[in-house]
Amino acid sequence: MRRLKLATGLILVVGALTTSGMFWVARREAARLVTHLPDERPPIERTPADVGMDYRDVQVTTSDGLRLAGWWTPSKNGAAVIVQHGYKTNRSTQLLEIAATLARGGYGVLLSSLRAHDLNDGRVISFGLEEMKDLSAWLAFIQTLEGVDPSRIGIFGNSLGGSLAIQLAAQTQSIKAIVTHSAVASVRSTVETSIAYFTGLPPFPFTPMILFWVEQDWAMKPDLLDFTVWIAALDSQPILLMQGGADVVVASESGQLLYDAAREPKELWFEPDLGHVDFQRERSQEFSDRVVGFFDRHLLNPEN
Questions:
Q1: Domains of the chain, earliest start first
Q2: E strands along 122-248, which residues?
Q3: pLDDT computed for residue 262 by the predictor
Q4: Which residues, at least 6 apart from 46, have a Cβ–Cβ distance to it below 8 Å?
Q5: Which residues contact 166 (CB under 8 A, 6 or more apart)?
Q6: What is the pLDDT of residue 229?
Q7: Contacts of 42 (CB under 8 A, 6+ apart)
Q8: 239: exposed, middle or buried (C-beta count within 10 Å: 0-12, 13-18, 19+)?
């Protein structure tokens, strides 16, 4: 009996230590997911000049005083597109060829960037809770540029940048057309896929633990980070959603979830064999035809 009690006690102690260790790991990973310190950020290794674009460096200051860096290429057709990077990337990562495609179509291109990314101020990523201040500053900036018709402004977003583009467009009629590239539908719908990708931890038991610490330590409620709510609130702005079925960064059903929640006019381009933000690289000509054609229809010839 004494040995049984001792073994039971040992099991309980080991179990408590294991649980405590898992909670410590979850808390650490929660902090890593919502912070992005300057020395952790990928460097700017290329500029628009590397893809044949004329450009200039630009900067805005947000309503809460953060400085953000970007690149601007002038418009040749009076219309302009904000091109927004995704989670923990920057304006040179995955976006320069996309920007060049739009510039060849005559569009002014603003390669924008977010707080806690790129060369910018800020250290916390809030998944849309604070980033609307960033995109609002970029929108106000582009509306004042010479050669840009403020009634012909669209937005293109990669990954989380696509989700934020939806949120911005739902909050202002100044965005006339939206294209998203592997956008997140909601934190709840993608959390297991994304946590496995970014942390390497198994979804169970770590997903609920990480969500607990994100809410407790960082005051971010996952249920508020639902972009299907924002897409349903679009006021007749057309949207093109691109989603790959082989996406391992966000849940592959994200595009369909957003499409189902959206009102017309809406389009979904789904490719079952493509991964995360792979459309321009793997389907370059079709990407150009579809994306530039979409903006042409809705920014240059909106009456059609």
A1: 35-186+225-300 (3.40.50.1820)
A2: 153-158, 177-181, 239-244
A3: 98
A4: 92, 96
A5: 157, 178, 180, 183, 227, 230, 231, 234, 239, 258
A6: 96
A7: 88, 89, 90, 93
A8: buried
Residues written for the chain: 304
Backbone φ and ψ for 90, nearest 5 degrees, come out as -150, -175
- CA pair distance 50, 249, nearest whole angstrom: 27
Residue 135 confidence (pLDDT): 98
Closest CA to 89 of 113, 121, 72: 113
pLDDT for res 19: 59
The pLDDT, as a whole number, for residue 301 is 83
Round to whole Å and give the CA distance between 23 and 34: 17
* DSSP of 271-300: ETT--TT-HHHHSHHHHHHHHHHHHIIIII
Low-confidence ranges of the chain (pLDDT < 70): 1-20, 303-304
Residues 6+ apart with CB under 8 A from 191: 207, 211, 222
pLDDT at 144: 96
The string of DSSP codes covering 46-102 is: --GGGGT---EEEEEE-TTS-EEEEEEE--SSS-EEEEE--TT--TTSS-HHHHHHH
Q: 180: which strand partners? A: 157, 241
pLDDT at 9: 39
Q: Determine the 3-state secondary structure of 157 from DSSP.
A: strand
Note the pLDDT tens digit of each residue in 246-296: 999 999 999 999 999 999 999 999 999 999 999 999 999 999 999 999 999
- The pair of structure tokens assigned to 172 is 């202002």
Amino acid at 285: Q
